[in-house]
Write a structure and sequence with these properties.
Largest sheet: none
Number of strands: 0
Helix content: over 70%
CATH superfamily of the domain at 494-589: Tetratricopeptide repeat domain
Radius of gyration: 32 Å
Length: 590
């Protein structure tokens, strides 16, 4: 099925997540110092290689004779970048000396350089029958399985490493983390307890012990472990964040405040903690202290480009809109002309359902701002939501006269005109957008919808084909063309293919699912149609057309009772085909 509204609420939500937000916070900046350290030490992305076996391999491991010659030749090829040739030579070396684990390990490393993880695993697993097993091979098996998300296999490999060599500090950390992720907290606790018993200076061991104990509800013991972590590594901030959580749960606000102040004493530029502390003071009734921090943050945001993304990531992205409003309104006092803050306040107030305030803030975003176009489009959508399409058009029209026209604004401009059924203005906007950006798949798609509304099915089909050619995964165009073919009763095999391709991109879209079901109906595959249309109704239970389609399919499989039930449900949803459905019901009830 094709959605009727040119700019639907669903489209608006999609834009909120893409167009509006993408320039604000692209990616996540990790503050987790401990995690960063673990990734740096033990991450699977970069696997070290060895170039000289004389210092790395034991005497028993060293190849000799012809195997040594082939190994050396392979190393030279590797050094020259000829990895394929190096692999061939290393395999020949193993044929000559199949008992040497070191050669197999080196072959696995070469295969990893070629991104052949499965091949490397196959080679490495061949050395595990030796007693004792080759430790470096076991480690690499663990790492590769972790990178392939085969955590049970990685766990078994690391358990064997510790059983053979209990001095591997790094393996305790890796194994314990796998246990935590698997919810095996008792095993994780035991692993980290063994780690700190063997290595009393392991701050990672104490940190993870604290995390596990906190998860188990042993708050006092968790606090002790986090404090021990800080004694060993006072520069780390993450243990302090964990202490803040503990103190917050216990209501120990004095302790929580002390931790905030300690973090800022060590790192006065910690913007996240400044924001948290401001909220702490605000909620505790100390508004003057909160305002002082926020005023400084507002001033700082004018020169420090990290302030706004941090706030957006920590509060708006996490949907903590009330807290975001407090922070932003306080910061605005320090930077009353800031377009960034006005824009974020507009987004925040919209999410808080204060549409008037949202429009007011968005309207103060300057044309020179990086967020100006986003603010204009967001305002237009708010007006659309309020039912004031003319004002939405006026907002975009004013922007088009202020900044150089661009295809994105013209796309929205035309879509709003289309919604008011002013098809001439809509077409003019789309054509102008295509002059600027002839390869814009979204404009071709909207142009196709427009031609369909004007009764020009042929032109509609051509525009949908252009959109798909430009963007083969354009779910909207794939679905529209497939549904159009189904409605016309033509190219039904192609219609099925188009609907299936659209579902690959959006598998949980009820309208696309309806298209596929309707194609099966048109092909006479009525049992299939019933199954698929049932799925469509479960995804979009309130849509009258989908309900009618399912009723039609039930009728074809001689389930008249279900057909009547679906038709009556469709009538309740104000189906535009009211009279036709009433006739169907009347006929069936005879």
């Amino acid at each position: 099925m094709v959605q009727g509204a040119p700019v639907s609420r669903r489209m608006r939500q999609a834009k909120d997540k893409s167009l509006y937000m993408r320039t604000l916070w692209v990616g996540r900046i990790k503050r987790l110092a401990v995690t960063a350290l673990i990734v740096g030490l033990f991450g699977c992305g970069s696997i070290p290689t060895r170039t000289n076996f004389s210092s790395e391999a034991s005497v028993e491991e060293r190849p000799s004779g012809a195997a040594y010659y082939l190994f050396t030749a392979a190393q030279l090829e590797k050094k020259n970048g000829a990895l394929d040739r190096a692999i061939v030579l290393m395999k020949k070396a193993i044929e000559v000396d199949p008992q040497t684990s070191f050669l197999k390990y080196e072959l696995a490393m070469l295969l990893l350089s070629q991104q052949d993880q499965e091949g490397a695993l196959l080679v490495l697993e061949g050395v595990l029958e030796k007693v004792p097993p080759h430790i470096e091979s076991l480690m690499m098996i663990g790492r590769i399985n972790q990178s392939l998300n085969r955590m049970e296999a990685a766990q078994r490999a690391y358990e064997r490493v510790i059983a053979v060599d209990p001095t591997r500090e790094d393996v305790y950390v890796l194994l314990g983390k796998i246990y935590i992720d698997a919810g095996q907290l008792d095993k994780a606790l035991s692993t980290y307890e063994r780690l700190v018993a063997k290595y009393p200076a392991s701050y990672l061991g104490y940190f993870f012990l604290g995390k596990i104990l906190a998860e188990q509800g042993n708050v006092a013991a968790a606090e002790e472990k986090f404090l021990q972590t800080l004694e060993l590594a006072p520069e780390l901030e993450e243990p302090n964040y964990e202490l803040i959580k503990l103190y917050d749960k216990q209501g120990r606000l004095d302790k929580k405040l002390a931790v905030y102040e300690d973090i800022l004493k060590k790192n006065p530029d910690n913007i996240e903690i400044m924001m948290e502390l401001a909220l702490f003071y605000q909620k505790g009734g100390k508004r003057n202290r909160a305002n002082e921090i926020l005023l400084n943050l507002g001033l700082r945001s004018e020169t420090d480009r990290t302030v706004i993304p941090i706030l957006a990531r920590q509060y708006i992205e996490q949907e903590a809109f009330d807290d975001a409003a407090v922070l932003l309104e306080g910061m605005l006092k320090g930077a009353p002309e800031s377009s960034d803050i006005h824009y974020l306040l507009g987004v925040t107030q919209d999410e808080r359902q204060d549409k008037t305030a949202a429009i007011g803030y968005l309207g103060k975003v300057k044309p020179s701002s990086r967020f100006y176009q986003n603010a204009v489009v967001h305002m237009a959508f708010i007006f659309q939501e309020l039912g004031d399409i003319p004002e939405a058009i006026a907002v975009i029209k004013a922007a088009l006269s202020t900044i150089a026209p661009n295809s994105e604004l013209l796309l929205y401009f035309g879509s709003f005109y289309e919604e008011t059924e002013n098809y001439d203005e809509a077409e003019a906007a789309f054509l102008k957008g295509l002059e600027i950006d002839p390869d814009n798949a979204n404009i071709h798609f909207r142009m196709g919808v427009l031609y369909d509304k004007r009764g020009n099915r042929k032109a509609c089909i051509e525009e949908m084909k252009k959109a798909i050619a430009l963007d083969p995964k354009h779910a909207g165009a794939l679905n529209y063309l497939g549904y159009t073919y189904a409605e016309m009763g033509i190219e039904l095999d192609q219609a099925e293919t188009l609907a299936l391709r659209a579902m690959e991109s959006q598998p949980d879209d009820g309208y696309i699912t309806d298209t596929l079901g309707w194609v099966y109906y048109k092909k006479g595959q009525f049992e299939k149609a019933v199954n698929v249309l049932e799925a469509a109704v479960s995804l979009v239970p309130e849509d009258p057309i989908i309900l009618e389609h399912l009723g039609d399919a039930y009728l074809k499989v001689n389930n008249k009772k279900k057909a009547i039930e679906l038709y009556e449900r469709s009538l309740l949803k104000e189906n535009k085909n009211q009279q036709a459905i009433k006739e169907k019901i009347r006929f069936l009830k005879k």
